[in-house]
Amino acid sequence: MGLRRSAPQLSDVRLLGATDVRRIAEQIGLRPTKQRGQNFVVDANTVRRIVRTSGVGAGDVVVEVGPGLGSLTLALLEIAQDVVAVEIDPVLAAQLPATVAELAPGRELHLVEADAMRVESLPLEPTALVANLPYNVSVPVLLHLLQTFPSIRSGLVMVQSEVAHRLAAGPGSRVYGVPSVKAAWYADLELAGTIGRTVFWPAPNVDSALVAFRRHEEPGDEALRQATFAVVDAAFAQRRKTLRAALANLAGSPARAEEVLRAAGVDPQSRGEQLTVDDFARVAARFDA
Fold it and tell me: Which among 92, 138, 240, 277 is least buried, having the fewest CB atoms inside 10 angstroms?
């Protein structure tokens, strides 16, 4: 929408407050649903904090998933060169351009009405991801976007606090698991703060947290990624089992699993929670050796 323009000034955009959110929701007959994880941020300071923490700048093309009524979208439009908003809800998708036109006139919003889990292309090549991800599908959406759009170099996502700790966990942590390892294939992740329940409408029943990430070189090609993820899934399916036992079905037998693990330099008596993503990649590579 509109022509490309120079970096905007903060005063150009008016952010949504609680009154605005409820007014727009009433206008379009919206009743937030748990099925789609619809909890809308109603505090301008919170969305500005999210954008500031994300580190996005005037040269970035930011993809946002689940823009909802536009609270974070408007804050991103204050700073970023372009914002690509992916919204699955047709009612919300229909309203967002009008909200942007009213409160951020002249800004470059590219709206994609689609399921983020199925998006394979975008109108612009994104350089960053900043989003309040739908909590019920946050990990699959994050992994899909990192896999599908290698141009995304960094970002910040708001997710359920429990999920945030899993994503940012390292080997040896009690919450280290499948999300931790799979996300680590693509990027370095770290906790970047907490978000109180009172800044949402309606208030969620869970705590929220921010996870920042920066992409790094992946441990291997697509074939190795798929093989590694299969090993990761097997290793954590019964996380208290040793890897020799946990990988027995995948390898064909416990003895073959032990052979593969030893060839990869991994103790067969260790458990999945002790391995880094690079360790898992070495194990996966030995399956085909």
Answer: 240
Give the residue numbers of the binding site. Answer: 39, 41, 66, 87, 115, 132
Q: Is residue 228 part of a domain?
A: yes
**Considering 170, 196, 215, which residue would you say is the last residue of a domain?**
215
pTM: 0.92
Q: How many domains does the chain have?
A: 2
2 lies in some domain? no
- At 234, which CATH number? 1.10.8.100
112 and 192 in a common domain: yes
For the chain, the average pLDDT equals 93
| DSSP per-residue string spanning the chain | -----PPPPGGG-----HHHHHHHHHHTT----TTTT--EE--HHHHHHHHHHHT--TT-EEEEE--TTSHHHHHHHHH-SEEEEEE--HHHHHHHHHHHHHHSTT--EEEEES-TTT----SS--SEEEEE--GGGHHHHHHHHHHH-TT--EEEEEEEHHHHHHHH--TT-TT-SHHHHHHHHHEEEEEEEEE-GGGEESPPSS-EEEEEEEE---SS-HHHHHHHHHHHHHHHHTTTS-HHHHTHHHHSSHHHHHHHHHHTT--TTS-GGG--HHHHHHHHHHHT-
Reported confidence tier of residue 34, pLDDT bands at 50, 70, 90: low
Question: Do 186 and 112 share a structural domain?
Answer: yes
Q: Binding site membership for S-adenosyl-L-methionine: which residues?
A: 39, 41, 66, 87, 115, 132
What local confidence, expressed as pLDDT, does residue 35 receive? 54
- pLDDT for residue 2 is more than 50: no
